[in-house]
Amino acid sequence: MNDTRSLQTPHPLAAGMKGRCPRCGEGKLFAGFLDLAPRCERCGLDYAFVDAGDGPAVFVILIAGFIVVGAALVVEVMYEPPFWLHAALWGPLILAVTLAPLRIVKGVLVALQYHHKAAEGRLEGRERP
Ligand SMILES: [Zn+2]
Prior knowledge:
Shape: elongated
Oligomer: single chain
Number of strands: 0
Strand content: under 5%
Bound molecules: zinc ion
Structural class: mainly alpha
Helix content: 40-55%
Distance between the termini: 33 Å
Largest sheet: none
Radius of gyration: 20 Å
């Protein structure tokens, strides 16, 4: 039982969706809209380990694309509206379904990275160059 992560560690999905620290579940994870704080203000967890990369954007793009393209196709086939109406409808929807979940998805991926101790692959016994 050398695991320092106690049973009081919050569920990664709950902590991530709230934008809270993955270790204590109380400190803020974000300093800006998508910028991470340097460390947890409560437990002091250093967020330098975080490397979500393009993961949040990929998930959001795939889900948002499915929603917006599907809705645009259904509306086009059923109602055949003019193109200006397509632009008026899907422009705001694109903003809503991409910006709103981006922070939540990033928080969840960071919490899952901490929970599963995910890190860059390394070969044992070899020094870094
Ligand atoms: Zn914390």
